[in-house]
Amino acid sequence: MHTNSTRGFHRDTRIDLMKEFTICESLSDTKSPYMTVLPEPRSYGAMVGDFLTRQGMLRQGSTIVELGGGYGSLMRGLMEAHGRLIRKVFMVDLSKTLLKRQRERLMDYPGQVSFINADIHELIHAFRGADLVIVNEVIGDLDTLTGLDPRHLPGEAFALIDRYGLEHPARERFSLNSGAISLVEALCSLEIPAFISEHSCDPLMPGDMPYLARGLALDSFPREIPLSGHSEYTIRFSHLMRVSRSFGRKTASGPLIDLLGITDSPALRFMFLGNACSTEKQAVTSEFLDHVREYRWLTLE
Ligand SMILES: C[S@@+](CC[C@H](N)C(=O)[O-])C[C@H]1O[C@@H](n2cnc3c(N)ncnc32)[C@H](O)[C@@H]1O
């Protein structure tokens, strides 16, 4: 067994998120070429805020904590669209380089936003009483136990699997998102409402676009995504849901495509199934759909 950790990378490296194709950065600016996939241009942060308002999770006077805010683009979009609802924001990140970028991106909100250089796992307990925690495309970076032999599970993996009844392969070696599971455990025991999104290994397809499942494994276990200087792992959302339900938390999950308001159309279907792109705009749309179809959101209320 090995533990994949990205702590050293995030703490000590000058990180360039442009090498990672994050959904948030792809949709951070309404002039981005990826906006063509949306029904109307809207930043990712604004859309997450729309969604959380509809869910009743973003309310007047909210105190929000964002863990691993990257370049600060989600929070910038959220503040621009819904800032009047937000009383206070705490941005927590392990990377000093990225915290500097967040400060620059959020400089229009002095006093309202504070920045904290810390490890998520070490600080989460300080946020008991927060109204909402946002964790966007971060949990795949948290520790993952890899190369687990189901017949000889080491103590840490066995304890999690046993405590929450987590399903796993009968024979093949597999990986377990231990860091993501422990964050969800903490959020549940602290009773903090949360919005989480990440690249999944058990994706859900939008009801009107089942064809997006073509060529995808819909019920698999975390797989490595090698990136510049580190690796992250896809997330088994069904495990996180089992954990949150065992705490009695109201939890929901769905495809990120639904949150973005992307709906079926003959043109999209033709382009995706036929791999038929005759313009740059179509190629960009197809590339984005191929990537985002594996992403899920999860809420803990
Ligand atoms: C892939 S980036 C995502 C950034 C942004 N949320 C987005 O969606 O574009 C991961 C972020 O989580 C931060 N991060 C990773 N591990 C962390 C940890 N253990 N504690 C605090 N921040 C962490 C990184 O520094 C970075 O800001």
Characterization of the model:
With 301 residues, this protein is an alpha/beta fold. The chain has one domain: 3-Layer(aba) Sandwich (Rossmann fold), CATH 3.40.50.12710. It is 34% helix and 20% strand. It has twelve helices and twelve strands. The strands form three sheets. It has a seven-stranded mixed beta sheet, sandwiched between helices. Strands 1-6-7 form a three-stranded antiparallel beta sheet. Helix 3 crosses helix 4 and helix 8 runs parallel beside helix 9. The longest helix has 13 residues. The radius of gyration is 19 Å and the shape is globular. The chain starts with a strand and ends with a strand. The site of S-adenosylmethionine has 23 residues, from helix 1, helix 2 and strand 3.
What is the helix content? 25-40%
Give the domain tally.
Answer: 1
**CATH fold group:** Rossmann fold
* Number of extended strands: 12
Number of contiguous helices = 12
CATH architecture tag: 3-Layer(aba) Sandwich
Under CATH at level 1, the class stands as: Alpha Beta
Cα-based radius of gyration, to the nearest Å: 19 Å
* Proportion of residues in β-strands: 15-25%
First and last CA, distance: 34 Å
Structural class: alpha/beta
Order of helices and strands: EHHHEHEHEHEEHEHEEEHEHHHE
Looking at the structure, what is the overall shape?
globular
List the keywords.
Rossmann fold; 20% strand; globular; three-stranded antiparallel sheet; 12 helices; 301 residues; seven-stranded mixed sheet; alpha/beta
